[in-house]
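Quick illustration for those who missed Monday's session on complexes.
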Amino acid sequence: MRHVTYKGLTFEPYIAADRIQTRIKEIAAQISDEFRGKNPLFICVLNGAFPFAADLFRACDIDAEITFIRLKSYEGTSTSGKVREIIGLTEPIEGRPVIVIEDIVDTGNTIVNLTETLRKMAPSDLRVATLLFKPDSLKHNFSPDYTGFEIPTKFIIGYGLDLDGMARNLPDIWILSEQYDD
Ligand code: IMP
Ligand code: MG
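Prediction with inosinic acid bound:
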């Protein structure tokens, strides 16, 4: 079977690039319907969401703006649930509809923390679009407004998602193979 390896781990094909693009067009059509005339601000959460954000934003045929943020954890790992500082949000969002673009919602720690912080800035609407969602991993009462694909609690790479910084440039999404586990 076709596979890729990174850092000694083997991955199998999971979601092909054309399926990703088809799904993104569907989400973009829905967002365009709901936000036409409202000039929403898309907020792309770097690094992982950049391919999704680029494709989703281009597929929306409405007036809209986009900006890019990073989240800096004060302590612990990215999934530790600690306080995260937003880096790079220079646009005022008060009174404005905001659509956060994420690559993946796993435990939900990141997105819940981020949306709580953004909500304090009083946007007129706050939505979350995530390409991938692992509902079985979720530790919060949260559901994304727009989801590309619901997936099981397994590790995936490609199309922005990384393994220690690698594999973000793969056009398809790949899943960790159990066959090759040692
Ligand atoms: P959460 O805070 O647990 O929802 O997950 C946040 C971050 O964990 C995501 O933004 C990703 O950077 C990373 N992550 C979670 N699952 C995966 C995966 O399957 N592959 C690559 N990164 C992942
Ligand atoms: Mg991320």
